[in-house]
Amino acid sequence: MNGYAPEYVFNKKRSYTLPVEPYCVKLFENRWYLLAHNVSYDKIRIYGLDRIESLELTDNTFKLPKDFSASGFFSTYYGIVTGNDIKPERIIIRAYHDHIPYMKSLPLHASQRLLEEHDEYADFEVYLAPTYDFIMRLLHTGAMIEVISPASLRQTMKEWISDMYELYKND
């Protein structure tokens, strides 16, 4: 079945009607998303269900690719932001004393594992693509965690933190 879904993106002012082949839905941060093959662009896309104005079912049919797995598709991502330009990599995160139990009891990602633990900190490893959603999650923890590696993600964190500091520095 194809769904025709007008797409409203937060930074766009108009709706779009496009044919899609729905693959799965995913809940992330209290919003539901549709992962679908956009027939017009021949690309897999994510659509926020709260931004779909209407759906029209058609008589068109399609077959889900034999090798498609929803859990496999999202396995190297945190959240719903995906992208071919951001590759998964080994990321080391240091959690400081008070945050260690939280990291242990609620892992950031299925790939998370404890590397080493000391009195004041513990180092955790995850293997995923450091997308926007993941960076926002890391920033959410503030000074309770520190990205140890890779250097590129550490630099990205520094840039976000510097931008935040600029907003508050004159108070």
Descriptive notes:
The protein has 171 residues and is of the alpha+beta class. The protein is 22% helix and 35% strand. It contains four helices and nine strands. It has helices spanning 70-73, 100-105, 132-140, 151-168, and strands at residues 3-7, 16-28, 31-38, 43-48, 56-57, 89-96, 113-117, 121-128, 145-149. Strands 4-3-2-1-5 form a five-stranded antiparallel β-sheet, with no helix packed on it. Strands 7-8-6-9 form a four-stranded antiparallel β-sheet. A hairpin with a 2-residue loop joins strand 2 and strand 3. The longest helix has 18 residues, at 151-168. It is globular. The relative contact order is 0.13. Mean pLDDT is 90; it is low at 1-8.
The helix/strand order is: EEEEEHEHEEHEH
Strand content: 35-45%
Uncertain regions spanning at least 5 consecutive residues? 1-8
* Neighbour order of strands in the largest sheet: 4-3-2-1-5
SS class: alpha+beta
Total strands: the figure is: 9
For the largest beta-sheet, the strand count, sense and barrel status come to:
5 strands, antiparallel
Which radius of gyration do the C-alpha atoms yield?
19 Å
User: What is the count of DSSP helices, taking H or I runs of 4+ residues?
Assistant: 4
